[in-house]
Structures are given as structure tokens and as C-alpha cells.
Amino acid sequence: MNFIRKHYKCEIYLADEVAHLVKEPGTRCYDELVTLMGRGILQENGFIDKAKMARRIFEDEQLLEQVNAIVHPAVQVYLMERLKEAGDNPRVELFFVEAALLIEAGYEDLVDELWYVYADAEVRRRRLRASRGYSEEKITAIMDSQLSEEEFRAHCDFVIDNSGTLEESMKQIKDKLEAYTWQE
């Protein structure tokens, strides 16, 4: 995303970061989550404690679904508001949303294109061990919980093969974006 941000007139939103914004005190999402899960998920300063909330929702699949039903629509509303603002801004030519659950959360209906950043399984495992220190068990659990490569490819308009070097991935992005009518 840094490559795109640096070289193109764009706005980029990370869905995980937006999810934190829409859960801040004073938002509708915050109120709904506290009503659903109780004040026990709050820190002393009134903000939601991410670790407490994560422990609760990942122990209870039904609660996870209820939380997702609150958070995902709030994130989408926020992003649609930013998209409208970007559309009115002549300095913005591209609008990107990075999200792990684009397909599962129904973003296909909100975006013009879905891009799939692919890396072969062994490359992903090696990167997760190196960058996050994850165990093989945790990596397997994460990968097993994701859609299959075939499902990603069936839903996506463009695949970036991120198995190689950063330069190779950036070239694929550049080639794709140069197919549009604007210039860097």
C-alpha cells in the first residue's frame, strides 16, 4: 500500500483501522457493542479493550457473528462516506480498501474491483513465523479459517502474486494501474 500511496493520487483505508475508529466512545457501534457484551469489555478510560473483546468473541461463535453484524456495517458506512468525499475531491483518483474479509463482508457490491494479494502457502508460513513469531499451529489455524485460493480467485478481478520480491509485486501493481487513463 505504501507504493500505491507514494505514486498515485489516492486514498487508502485499512478496514482493521476503520473498525477501531467506529468502536470509539460516542459512536453507535460502541454503544451497541457495550450493550451486547457488557461494560466488562471496557478499559478504565472507557475505550473498548481489544484483548478482552477478542477473548470473548473468539470463544463464542454466535457472539462473533453478532459483533460482526454490528461492526462490518459500521465500517462500510464509514468507508462509503469517505468514498463520497473522495469523489468530490479532484486530487483523488483512486480509492482503496484493504481488508482481510472483503468477500465475506460483502464488499463486492461496494467496490469496482477486488484485488487478491496471493502468496504461496510456504511463503506465507515463512513470513508469519519471521514477522510475527507465530507457531506452526497458529499459522495452520489462520490459514484453515480463510477462504480457499480458488474462492479468492473466483471473486477477484486481479491477482497480485506476492510470492516473490517486493519489486516484483510493485511491478504488477504498476502495470495494472498504468492500464487506466491517468498518469503517475
CATH superfamily of the largest domain: P-loop containing nucleotide triphosphate hydrolases
Taken in chain order, the helices and strands follow as: HEHHHHEEHHHEH
CATH topology name of the largest domain, in short, is Rossmann fold
Q: Please count the helical segments.
A: 9
Oligomer: single chain
Q: Kindly report the spatial arrangement of strands forming the biggest sheet.
A: 1-2
CATH class category name of the largest domain:
Alpha Beta
The SS-based structural class is mainly alpha
Kindly estimate the percentage of residues that lie in beta strands according to DSSP. 5-15%
Q: Per CATH, which architecture of the largest domain?
A: 3-Layer(aba) Sandwich
Largest sheet: 2 strands, parallel
Mean pLDDT: 92
Sum up the overall morphology in one term.
Answer: globular
Low-confidence stretches: none
**Overall number of structural domains:** 2
Helix percent reads 55-70%
Radius of gyration from the alpha-carbon trace, in angstroms: 18 Å
Distance between the termini: 15 Å
Number of E-type strands: 4
